[in-house]
UniProtKB/TrEMBL annotation:
Protein's name according to its UniProt entry: Mitochondrial enolase superfamily member 1
Source taxonomy: Eukaryota, Metazoa, Chordata, Craniata, Vertebrata
Molecular function in Gene Ontology: L-fuconate dehydratase activity; magnesium ion binding
Domain Mandelate racemase/muconate lactonizing enzyme C-terminal: 163-259
Cofactor(s) the protein requires to work: Mg(2+)
Keyword Transmembrane helix among UniProt keywords: no
Amino acid sequence: MLQRVISLTVRDVRFQTSLEQHGSDAMHTDPDYSAAYVVIDTDCGLKGFGLTFTVGKGTEIVVRAVDALAGLVVGKSLQEIVSDFRGFYRLLTSDGQMRWLGPEKGVIHLATAAVLNAVWDLWARAEVFITCADCFFRLPEDQMLKEGYPAYTTSCAWLGYPDQQLKQLCTDALEGGWTKFKVKVGADLEDDIRRCRLIRQMIGPNNTLMIDANQRWDVDEAISWVSRLSEFKPLWIEEPTSPDDILGHAAISKALAPLGIGVATGEQCANRVMFKQFLQASALQFVQIDSCRLGSVNENLAVLLMAHKFKVPVCPHAGGVGLCELVQHLILFDYICVSASLSDRMCEYVDHLHEHFVNPVVIQDAHYMPPKDPGYSCEMLESSVQRHQYPEGEAWKAAHEQMTKA
Ligand SMILES: [Mg+2]
């Protein structure tokens, strides 16, 4: 714990997922899954790894914001940081000048998350967490080790996938034991009806279907559009409208309740203050936390506790680059230490880019299996970082050459 931070470096790492329309939705039609990837070095050789997720262009802005925060971390000992973690969080989010860029939202918030994720990783690697839990905690822990945490898949039905691909992926997923599926909707109603019908026919009446519009509609449009899709029995509509429109979500939630469809926040709900108001306004039936949008673990823990207080299940967002690796820790904490319930709870899973991580997530029979290695699981393979670093990595040089030839 006496380790002192001697440097904090950040790199712009991007993957060309847009080439095959992975990750495409009604608003983000060509995402290149990317990360501002942070490495903290200490004077005793121990390192911490963290990241925040982006979808391509603009990652360089997040990288600059991380650089701007680095001075607040370098020179501190881990002991100094974790003995007053709240104070450290406030130091990062309330710097007298940089606060103007937020507070606790936008680029500076993403940058804060990348830094804090790396600090948590460093802390977890430095500590030996001793299980001194009583029987109650031990029971959920044993259950997780044996069965894992239930997951749902978004990999089958990105908006840009043709029907044939959707069918094939759905067949494969069913064979792999998946029972919960999410479909991207919101660009064209007739397309949505066709795709939802197709997937519902494939998965049958008893498996779970969810839909996600990624903020595409205004409030009235969301209500009428989702009502048209109600025959396919979606459990929730995610991000039906602007992520800042709390009363809009409340109106949608009220209108859809008789149809048995809940409302979920998505991965772009800004921060803990917004979550508080969403919950107070009864605007949500499902809370989605995000390991990189919120200011990292600190803020996510606050949201888990608030959701518990309001009796709303947490079903975290994941996917992207490294989000499944990060979020598995948060759901295990939620189950073992907060909710002890799996009722209406599941965590998103997307089957991309895990091969770039040193300790990739382990999925068994559509469940997240608890990670066994110390840390926050987002250390990337150095070879992957170098190859995909933007714009100088080999992957991007090759892409650039191809474009110039064309
Ligand atoms: Mg979403």
